[in-house]
Amino acid sequence: MLLSILDRSRTRTGFDDASALAGSIERAVHAEQLDYHRFWVAEHHGVPGIASGAPPVLLAAIGAHTSRIRLGSGGVMLPNHQPFVVAEQFAMLAALYPGRVDVGLGRSLGFTEPVRRALRTGRDEAETFADDLAELSGFLDGTGPVTARPAVPALPMYVLATGKGLAIAAKAGLPVVVGGPILWGDGAEIAAYRRQFRPTELTPNPRVIVSLDVMIADSAALARELMLPEAWAMARSRTTGEFPPLVPTREIDFDAAPTRTRERVERSIDSSVHGTAHEVGLRLEELVERTDADEILASTSTYDRTALAVADAELRQLFAPSLSR
Question: Across residues 39-50, what is the average pLDDT?
Answer without folding.
Answer: 93
